[in-house]
Structures are given as structure tokens and as C-alpha cells.
Amino acid sequence: MNKSVQKKSPVICIDGPSASGKGEISRRVAEKLGYRYLDSGMLYRILALEVDRRAFDLGDRAALLNLVMSLEIEFGGSGKLADAVKLNGEDVSFDIRTDKISKFASKIAVIPSVRKALLNRQIAFRVPPGLVADGRDMGTVVFPDAELKIFLTATSVARAERRYKQLIGKGINVKVEEILRELIERDERDKNRTLSPLLVPKKSIVIDSTTLSVEQVVAQVMDLVTNKRKEDNGGAL
Ligand code: DC
Hints:
By secondary structure, this protein is α/β, with parallel strands linked by helices. The chain is built from 10 helices and 8 strands. Helix 2 crosses helix 10, helix 3 (40-54) packs across helix 5 (99-108) and helix 8 (156-169) packs across helix 9 (176-192). The two termini are 21 Å apart. Bound molecules: 2'-deoxycytidine-5'-monophosphate (DC).
């Protein structure tokens, strides 16, 4: 078989803590490159929603795998619909982002069989011409051979303020102190779990977005992509 046929599609991983802006940045970079976009947190949220709704027994591994494989997920698209997601034909965009499901997703994400069950669904997103994947373990576990790994972070206060503005903008009444407390709690859980904890992948480039705009971060990532392409001399990216 020809070498270029065997070569896997390129992947750019953007990992980082909650509300670091990974989603927005990844989506814009994917759009610019014409790549597919994977919001892996959304898969954890969808599974959390299903498990919660069905009062599913997470101890039954075979059934869990079946459940994960049977979920029919459709993404909204671009613009205002970029955040939209359908599960088995139903719009669950709002339901997967409630406080309850956010917390529950972070809780089920510590269970090894849950992570294992979701692994292949994430890998399946790697299709030509390429993928931008955002999450906590994209560069460490799911796509360890990615061409470019970025760890996007910001101070917890900056992240809490961003999330606060987002929610207020959507008409959801919240307190910034509460958001900060929950964010720190979630960070701790994501960082301290034994399997696939949130950590800076080896050979990744750290971007601290505390004082940067979305446009500035996107520009930095696109520069990194361009440099990487030059380095690889017309390589995969
Ligand atoms: O990125 P997010 O906030 O939508 O993710 C929701 C939860 O899913 C998060 O608390 C941890 C978990 N998660 C994970 O464990 N691994 C990923 N790659 C993505 C998300």
C-alpha cells in the first residue's frame, strides 16, 4: 500500500481545564482549516444525560458499551447553531449544559469503563482532511500521535468570569462566586482522577489566555500550525 494512503489524518489537540475557551478556539481553528471538530466534553455530557435519564446501571459494562455505540449524535453546524447538538433526533443542547449534567459528566468521567467505552467514538472523528479535538486527554490518551498539541489555560478567576458572562448573556441567573467554587471543584476532580487526568501533554505548547482575546488565541494557534507545516516541509498538517 502507498505510504500516503496508510498515513492517518492530521489531528490538532487542544486540551485544558473548564472554561479555558477550548471550544470556541477549536471550532474557529477547525473552520479556518476546513477540518472536522470534536468536542469530547460533549460526548461525556451526552452520556451523562442518557445515564441520568434512564437511571442506567454503570456497573454493567457490556450494556454501557452498547449504550455508547447506540447514541446517535448530530452536530448543529456553524454560527448560532455551533453549540447545538441532537441526541437520537432530539435537541439536547440546553439539557447537556445544565449544572446538574455538568457535574454528573465530570463524575462519570472518572469511571474507567466509561472512558474506555467512549474511546472509539472519539477516534472515529479522525477523518480527512483533518481534525481539531478539544478535551482533557486528547493529546495524552486519545490522539497521542497528534501533529500539534496545545494546552490552553487561564486563571480560575478569569475562567469563572468568562463563564459568568456567557450564562448571564443567555439569561441564566448565576453568582460568579458560585461558578468559581464549582469550577475549582471540577478542576480538582479532572486533575486528580487516576485514569486520564487533566495534565499538560508531553511536547505540548501551553497558551495562557488570561489576558488574550479569542482572536489573539486563534491567531497564535494558526501561527503554530503554519510553523509546524513549514517544519514538516509540506507535512501532514
Ligand atoms: O469540556 P466540558 O466541560 O464540556 O467537559 C465535561 C466533563 O467531561 C468534564 O468535567 C470532564 C469530562 N471530560 C473528560 O473527562 N475528558 C475529556 N476529554 C473531555 C471531558
